[in-house]
Design brief:
Largest sheet: 9 strands, antiparallel
Helix content: under 10%
CATH architecture of the largest domain: Sandwich
Organism: Nonomuraea jiangxiensis
Number of domains: 2
Number of strands: 34
CATH topology of the largest domain: Jelly Rolls
GO molecular function, one term: cellulose binding
Protein name: Cellulose binding domain-containing protein
């Protein structure tokens, strides 16, 4: 339920740090990686940094790319956004997130969702870029990893980690010591619902701990209506129909939320249908389709705030031109002036259709899965400290001013949560299938606060 998608990483007091030792340590004797760098934006001041990279395997063993992390170090606490312009391995397999270090420094961590790097081969071009969220120019010449060279060459100011071990380059800076929360052993209750309701006015919804939103306020278009009547359950599918005629008064947004804040560590899963085009009317609105957990913000920069998001933008928004799926983990934020402490992973492809979404929260890490594939792995200061609500909503970032009413639809087949237990995506599907086979439409054994 992001109010904006800036990433202004604040300078927070750090009482303990791990000093990064400036040594190049091979990850494995049979495994030797090497990185080459060039830039297509060599100016000291730029609108966007454009590091181009090539990763080489000079060893004798194949390297799974999902074990590789590349870190580009930069100075300042500005909010940046990452993009992959083109890659031989395919931009759909390339991920990027900004990670804060002690003080105001940070690094861009580039990873891969799939693929391998055989001995004697290289990835080919990874044409990457990043830019400030407000599109202001910035100075890159003082960034540790920056170099003005426009031809490829070995570059040890960008590091490569394989399976968590430094395999290339010399890192810089220090990082906060992560606070690890140990999840108590064993499950602590289960929530399952396959949304067998007659309408948003069905009294069973409230009895089962759900609230259909009708109150005003954010996120989304100021002055828009949150309408319970636009939430329905045809064929046992939670259906959110959000619409607009291009005016605030003619904009309807939708949300379903758990009534109780009783969810923190454990596994969250839902089968969600995203859509790229409206069910009626002209396309083009910046709509956000979501599955997330959230804690209320009591005051600006509340340290107990938490939020774990899946957000799909079929038509882009927040500076993105087209389809993008975000997994975002929040520490806190303030509204005015806007500042946010969060980290995100994104993929810029269409996710229209049904998807199994899973978030595992345990041991100081949050792992996001899409259709059984690890999509994002976050943790550290972004780990949730307090119980949260579970929510689905669909809302508009802004209005494009097109004529005619257009309606966008998001649907949910089921929701599953196991408290204090890490459940694999495959096991989630097996458990949901078993519940349905037994004729169970709803179960909630998660203790109320």
């Amino acid at each position: 339920m992001s109010r904006n998608f800036g990433k202004i990483l604040l300078s927070l007091a750090i009482t303990a740090v791990l000093t990064v030792v400036a040594l190049v340590i091979p990850a494995d004797a049979a495994q030797s990686v090497r990185l080459q760098y060039r830039t297509s934006s060599p100016g000291a001041t730029t609108a966007q940094a454009e590091p181009w990279l090539q990763l080489f395997n000079d060893g004798t063993t194949t390297i799974p790319l999902n074990q590789v992390k590349i870190r580009y170090y930069l100075k300042g606490a500005e909010t940046y956004r990452f993009a992959c312009s083109w890659a031989v391995v395919g931009c759909s397999t390339v991920t990027g997130q900004f990670v804060r270090q002690a003080g105001t420094d940070q690094y861009l961590e580039v990873g891969f969702t799939s693929g391998t790097l055989a001995p004697g081969s290289n990835t080919g071009d990874l044409q990457l870029r990043f830019y400030r969220a407000d599109w202001q120019t910035f100075q890159q010449s003082d960034d540790y990893s920056y170099g003005p060279q426009t031809a490829y060459g070995n570059w040890n100011k960008i590091t490569v980690y394989v399976n968590g071990q430094l395999a290339w380059g010399t890192p810089t800076g220090s990082e906060p010591t992560p606070t690890v929360t140990v999840t108590p052993p064993g499950p602590g209750g289960v929530l399952f619902d396959d949304f067998t309701y007659t309408s948003s006015a069905d009294p069973l919804l409230a009895q089962h701990g759900w609230t259909v939103r009708g109150s005003s306020g954010g996120p989304g278009v100021p002055g828009a209506t949150w309408s319970p009547s636009a939430v329905s359950f045809p064929g046992g599918l939670l259906t959110l129909d959000s619409s607009t005629n291009g005016t605030a008064g003619g904009t309807v947004q939708t949300e379903l939320s758990t009534t109780n804040r009783k969810f923190q560590e454990g596994t969250y899963a839902a089968r969600v249908r995203f859509s790229d085009a409206p069910t009626s009317g002209p396309d083009g609105e910046h709509v956000v389709q979501t599955f997330f957990t959230i804690t209320p913000l009591r005051y600006n920069l509340d340290p107990d705030y938490g939020e774990l998001d899946f957000e799909y933008l079929p038509n882009g928004g927040w500076g993105e031109p087209s389809n993008i799926l975000y997994a975002t983990s929040w520490e806190t934020y303030q509204g005015e002036p806007w500042q946010a402490v969060n980290t995100h992973t994104a993929e810029r492809v269409s996710f229209a259709g049904w998807h199994d979404l899973v978030i595992q929260v345990s041991g100081g890490r949050m792992k996001y899965y899409v259709d059984g594939r690890l999509f994002a792995d976050h943790g550290d200061i972004y780990y949730p400290e307090t119980p949260m609500w579970i929510m689905f909503n669909q809302w508009f970032i802004d209005l494009q001013g097109a004529t005619g009413t257009r309606t966008y639809r998001q649907q949910v087949d089921w929701i599953y949560h196991s408290k204090n237990e890490v459940v694999s995506p495959a096991d989630v599907q097996s458990r949901v299938a078993a519940l349905r086979s037994a004729g169970t439409a709803f179960r909630d054994t998660v203790p109320n606060p």
